[in-house]
Specification:
Blueprint (H helix, E strand, L loop, with lengths): L8 H14 L5 E10 L4 E4 L1 H7 L5 E10 L11 H7 L11 E6 L23 E5 L14 E6 L6 H8 L7 E6 L22 E6 L3
Parallel strand pairs: 1-3, 3-4, 4-5, 5-6, 6-7, 7-8
Antiparallel strand pairs: 1-2
Length: 209
């Protein structure tokens, strides 16, 4: 929940629950941490995330940070029902307007399928920030008006990125950054022109060695 940064997790959770109980209709700006187990290819959630998902229908903005799971993350506990909800099964996010996805791991083995959001139905989503990740199968990509993407070279097939961008006819602001790190820069020739008829703000950055 916004406004609680810098507070210990246990205290922050209690404050969040108190706010949810008192403000039953207010829209929520939520930030969650999701652990990912690359070996089993599944997600592991903290208890506070399970509570946040019970209020998904009130989400206005959502910030998700992905981290690799390790034995040091002893505060995590698997919640099968949240895992199903995270994959869009029974998840009500029709009020979601802004989504931020941040992969905190400098590794191409983490979330390399990029299909985790294929069942997310977010018809009001307009703003997406995606750092070292890109939700290729997110249905709401076609509705975006603002997109900010940061990737490593070779992290995602550029052909797939192009296919996703071709769906964004309503896009007004587009920022793309290729950072140093990861694999080698991929060479891909766009056989057809990629048009953004509504874009008014465009920013493209490439880090050089």
């Amino acid at each position: 929940l916004s406004g609680t940064k810098g507070i210990l997790p246990a205290v922050r959770l209690e404050l969040n629950l108190l706010c949810w109980l008192r403000c039953t209709d207010a829209p929520l700006d939520v930030g969650i941490l999701v652990f990912f187990n690359p070996e089993a290819h599944n997600f592991i959630f903290m208890r506070s995330v399970a509570e946040a998902f019970t209020q998904s229908k009130r989400w206005r903005s959502l910030d998700i940070q992905f981290k690799a799971f390790s034995l040091d993350n002893r505060t995590t506990d698997p919640y099968p029902e949240v895992n199903r909800a995270f994959h869009g099964i029974g998840l009500d996010i029709r009020s979601l307007e802004s989504l931020s996805l941040r992969n905190e791991e400098n590794s191409n083995t983490l979330l390399k399928r990029y299909q985790e959001f294929r069942h997310w139905n977010a018809p009001r989503l307009r703003h997406l920030t995606s750092v070292h990740y890109f939700p290729l199968s997110l249905p709401a990509l076609a509705n975006l008006t603002s997109l900010d993407v940061t990737l490593y070279p070779g992290q995602i097939n550029l052909k797939h990125i192009r296919e996703a961008l071709s769906r964004m006819k309503a896009l007004e602001s587009f920022a793309f950054k290729m950072e140093r790190g990861g694999g080698e820069m991929e060479r891909y020739h766009f056989s057809n022109i990629l048009e953004f008829p509504s874009v008014r703000r465009l920013k493209i950055e490439v880090d050089h060695d």
